[in-house]
Amino acid sequence: MAVLLGVDTGGTFTDAVILDAGERQVLASAKALTTRPGLAAGVGRAIDAVMAQAGVAPADVGLVSLSTTLATNALVEGQGGRVALVFIGFGPGELARAGLAEALRGDPVIALAGGHGHGGAEVAPLDLAALREALDGLGDGITGFAVAASFATRNPAHEIAARDLIHAVTGRPVTCSHELSAALGGPKRALTAVLNARLIGLITGLIDACEGHLRQIGATARLMVVRGDGALIPADLARARPIETILSGPAASIAGAGWLTGLRDALVSDIGGTTTDVCLLRGGRPAIDPAGARVGPYRTMVEAVAMRTTGLGGDSEVHLTEGLEGALRLGPRRLMPVSLLAQDHPALVHDALDRALAAEVPQDGAGRFVLPLWRGDLPAGLDAREAAVAARLADGPLAQAVLLRNRMEAGALDRLVARGLVMRAGLTPSDAAHALGRLAVWDRVAAEKALTLFARRRSGRGERIAPDAAAMAQAIIDRLTAQTVDCLLEAAFDEDGRDWGGLTSEALARHPLTLAGLDRHAGILRTTLALGVPVIGLGASAASYYGAVGERLGAEMVLPGHGGVANAIGAVVGQVAMQATGTVTSPGPGRYTAHLPDGPQPYAAAEAAMAALELALGAEASARARAAGVSEIALAVTREVQQVEVEGQPMFIEARLRVTAQGRPRIAS
């Protein structure tokens, strides 16, 4: 009998589950550490462990589905490959819009003449000679290209021509903005294309790792990947459009939460190693964010669940803020927990911590470590300082105080971290949980040493911030509780639907009346505040932290069995949903243009143009669904027609059509 295999790869753990083909019960679940840089080892261990527990053979697997938080984590932490943006038909001021310059992080931009107008007509010829010259001068280190042209959604010819030339000259992956969204807004499309290009290597490595292990053990089932809106897409499409997998893990967790609990109305809070993801489940379904997925500082054009993603997780960096009191703050960057690093490198970790504890005044960076995440020769494209720092890591991890020779190299280390070439290790909430006995999987003694060292840091008053390791650990857990409460309150205020007088959800969550209500203040005034829906707590560490969160919010906290692998469960209970979108415009009275997949076509009537576009989009979406393994396809069509009234008569402005072809993928038997 065929079974379903779900795999979820996060920043710390890779989870795997086996469900029966009828999706009625979990037959087995397993976890393995996510391994960097070689993801195949962690993926393989999780798959092998869950199949052994379930007692199934590779030939019994009828469908494999993969979800991941790696793309989300990379954007939150500002990581990814070095890319080049080919910017066609835009002025220099357009780079400052939509956060595009910030997303580029100094990566090169090739500005070219070209582009099209609102109706799809060429406004200037594309300068391919200038593009070829610019490509020759880029040098090493570029991992991918993003191409964005003015009004490419109305006519993609210049993006396609640039893509073909870049492929021919460099052989590198190329992302065209029109392939990711049919919406207008050139800089925002360019931003989405840049982020996609930055993520290609990361997601390709994960898919290759999963497919490679499945082939190695003899499993022949099709591999699907969860998209950010919860739908399933084929692995080859996810390779080309990794940006669509942002919020893949959270989307899968929402599906898993509903499947595990049967609740139709709840706030779902999923804590991982890097992020906490909060979403409202209403009527059994999550809402889709109409403005496009927002992750960290970036608002993209990718359709995804309306999810609030915050850089807060079990492996978040612990900061001591400036000020008299010496308050704590967690995230948004993820560190490898000291207790985990000590599992594989006990001598390095304990020797460094012991030396730091013995010093009268610990060095800067004491208790911090740095791990290399590349294999083989030094990565290309490093400057002199980056190369010097990287060369010292060639033989393995080092204490940060040993690695860095001067303050100038700290910036080089930051850049290596941003490119995903190295990773820091240090004190995290996971270490605090080990010291308090809430977790017992890694090196508790190393965690206690790191906590003792951190507790010796001084507040603005010159006092130690904690008397001992236990007090320091509890302070970190309390801080995680407080920041999680803030996340849930912000989501609740956003989703409640009440007019809060123009205050933002962030301001409301920290408002004195809100805090008084949470404190159950009873004086001359009596105040209470509580969530009106249950909270479903997901994630491997949810049981360690979320009891206090529920108490603070006065909410029922639901911690379902198998909640630690909810993402992997959600990965295999979704449907394929392939979408095709297009527009009809009107260049003048009695003239209508359908912007078809193979180019714009004129029509004399609006209805004829929309009918032609709907037919073409239906064929395109159905072909994608069939390629994804769907045999029984259901089509859904939406039309958004914009009209204005002129002298009492409606005037057609534009129509946007979307056709969705959906169904369950075939399960091999």
Secondary-structure blueprint:
Blueprint: E1 3-9, E2 13-20, E3 26-33, H1 39-54, E4 61-68, H2 70-76, E5 83-88, H3 100-104, E6 109-112, H4 128-136, E7 144-149, H5 157-170, E8 174-176, H6 186-217, E9 223-226, E10 232-234, H7 235-240, H8 248-261, E11 266-271, E12 276-282, E13 285-286, E14 294-295, E15 298-299, E16 307-310, E17 316-320, E18 328-334, E19 336-337, H9 338-344, H10 346-358, E20 369-372, H11 384-392, E21 398-399, H12 400-403, H13 408-418, E22 422-426, H14 429-435, H15 444-455, H16 469-496, H17 505-509, H18 512-518, E23 535-538, H19 542-553, E24 557-558, H20 566-571, E25 576-588, E26 591-596, E27 599-603, H21 606-627, E28 634-646, E29 649-663
Parallel strand pairs: 1-4, 4-9, 5-6, 5-7, 7-8, 11-23, 19-22, 23-24
Antiparallel strand pairs: 1-2, 2-3, 9-10, 11-12, 12-13, 12-16, 14-15, 17-18, 20-21, 20-22, 25-26, 25-29, 26-27, 28-29
Helix pairs in contact: 1-6, 2-6, 4-5, 9-10, 10-15, 11-13, 14-15, 14-16, 15-16, 16-19
Describe this structure in words.
- The chain is of the alpha/beta class.
- It is 37% helix and 24% strand.
